[in-house]
Amino acid sequence: MSTYDKYLNLLKQIIQLKSVSTDHSFKDECALTAKWLNELFNDNGFETKIHEGYGNPIVVASYVADESFETCLIYGHYDVQPAEKEDGWNHDPFDVYEENGRLYARGVVDNKGQVLIHIANIIDLIKDGKLAYNVKFMIEGDEETGSPKLPDFIKEHKADLACDFFLISDGEIISDNPVIDAGFRGGANTKLVIKTASTDLHSGLFGGVAPSAAHEAAKFVANLKDSNNQVTIPGFYDDVDSISDEILENNKNIPFDMDEITNITGIKALKNEEGVDYYSQVGLRPTIEVTGLDSGFTDEGYRNSIPALATVKVNFRLVKNQNPNEVIEKYKQYIASVMPEYVEWDLQVTDPYEASKMNLDNKYVQIVKDKLTKSFGKAPYLAFSGGGLPIVILYQKYLGTDGVLAGLGNADCNMHGTNENYNIDILKKGLEFSRLFFSK
After folding, report:
1. Cys-Cys with 80: which of 107, 274, 283, 337 at CB 3.0–4.6 Å?
2. Strand 403-405 vs strand 165-168: parallel, antiparallel, or unpaired?
3. Are 213 and 331 found together in one domain?
4. Distance (Å, rounded) from C-alpha 394 to C-alpha 399?
């Protein structure tokens, strides 16, 4: 049986476990997934442990091939985003199905499918006596909810996680070209609740005189960015890390295809800051995005009432040297300065975390470059990711070690969306890369 066939067999098993961390009703499924991973590692000669008390269970497994070998720590997460067939999936999202050269399922790329690439290869290499590193896996179940208790876990289990370097595959390639991630943005989520009255008011009796929470929220949101797509919060850009000429040149040399972006996303225009290229904008410039706006009656029909409450959810994406807590404080001050006196408001903040940049001079980056070039037939791009991956800064801070981030998902995988998919050709190249990297 080929490595791919073994991989596919394991993938089908783990996908069936509905480890949705964003919905507490799936807590038992998360626990079953951790148990499944623990048994898989244990059955293949690893020392394993399931750690409780940090949210969903965390699985740590280690295998010593030779005391003289270097140790690689591999991170992954088994939790996934919600998915229902009624959302628009072509099939049951928790059963792997193949169609037109792709595997479809929730978690097939993010992140069960990617971390399983390394698990399947390392199990094979152990059996063949060809493993080039000692390996440790840390696989958690709260990544999709921000992993709020992960800092405590890593601080308290530094000895168990000690390594020479870490490897993470939790991202995407660019077109058909492999990528080594050079950094990630930090950020935070915020929820602003606006109140203009004690209850919704009859629009006939009070229309034209009563303030509307919906209208106040709309005015607030409309003024969060200017015509150059820059954030209007005073001091927002203080301490922003500058982009070197070398990095700017690197980013401009990464091919960009607007037609491909449109095909993947459906968007018809970009809102870059003037003079900033796509990859620099997404990876190295901070921003805020309104991710939720709710007020009034939106069901079928009409209820002619003036809303008393409105909710504005804003996601912050920050870059190196920006302190998330200081930025949030500036946001609070901004709200206080622009909100009318007749409006009551409350701001809730969830899990602020810092941006990270990788040390690209470490020797493991060069090894990964070589293996990716061999498996994909193309040298990898160095790219800064616009997403966040708090585990990177935690490993750097508490383990004091360097790492490499090589995402192995296809660019159009639609992670977090309906019909999440893994291009089988890309998947097989990822399997080849992993085997080359971990082989003697």
Report:
1. 107
2. parallel
3. yes
4. 8
Q: Are residues 88 and 113 in the same domain?
A: yes
Crossing angle of helices 112-128 and 424-438, in 10° steps, is 40
* 99 and 156 part of one domain: yes
- Return the C-alpha torsion angle 264, 414, 371, 1, nearest 10: -130
Residue 343: CATH number of its domain? 3.30.70.360
Those residues with Cβ within 8 angstroms of residue 121's Cβ, 6 or more apart along the chain or in another chain: 3, 431, 434, 435, 438
How far is the C-alpha of 50 from the C-alpha of 31, rounded, in Å?
Answer: 10
Length of the chain: 440
Q: Beta strand 287-295 with 356-357: parallel, antiparallel or unpaired?
A: unpaired
* Residue 253, domain member (yes or no): no
> What domain range includes position 122?
3-184+355-438
- Helices 363-376/424-438 angle, 10° precision: 140
Does residue 84 share a domain with residue 31? yes
Residues 407 and 308 in one domain: no
- Integer-rounded Cα Rg, in Å, for the chain is 23
Dump pLDDT digits (tens) for 275-309: 999 999 999 999 999 999 999 999 999 999 999 99
Do 311 and 365 lie in a common domain? Answer: no
Kindly report, residue by residue over 109-162, the tens digit of the pLDDT. 999 999 999 999 999 999 999 999 999 999 999 999 888 899 999 999 999 999
102 lies in a domain?
A: yes
Alpha-carbon span 391 to 147, nearest angstrom: 9
Among residues 334, 351, 368, the one where a domain terminates is 351
d(CA 335, CA 324): 17
Mean pLDDT of the chain: 95
pTM of full prediction above 0.90 = no
Q: Cα(242)–Cα(66) distance, rounded to whole angstroms?
A: 43
Q: Give yes or no: residues 47 and 178 share one domain.
A: yes
